[in-house]
Amino acid sequence: MDIHEWYEQVTGKDSINAVATKAGIAPATFYKQVRKTITPTSAVRIARAYGRPPTEPLVVMGLLTQEDVDALASSGSLSRAGDAELVRELARRLGVDDGGEV
Q1: What is the full DSSP assignment across 15-43?
Q2: Most buried by CB count within 10 Å: which residue of 54, 61, 78, 84?
Q3: So what's the pLDDT on residue 55?
């Protein structure tokens, strides 16, 4: 899949003007991009406007890998996890989870 296929899939039958307006992109600028190459900034704005993860078009464009996205997600999750959650996850991974409270 390339960025134009992604764009068609995400926006459906919405007009270029409607997509630009919804994403906060100048319609004249975006019209030129659709004919040539959609910029990463515009792609991220479209993703957000249509409720998609902003990393999705960047993976499609080859600017990020799925491994990059997964690493970002897991590092953020770990930093927000409480001590008890971390201990339970470690126990589960080590195979010593007895299902009890920590």
Answers
A1: -HHHHHHHHT--HHHHHHHHHS---HHHH
A2: 61
A3: 92
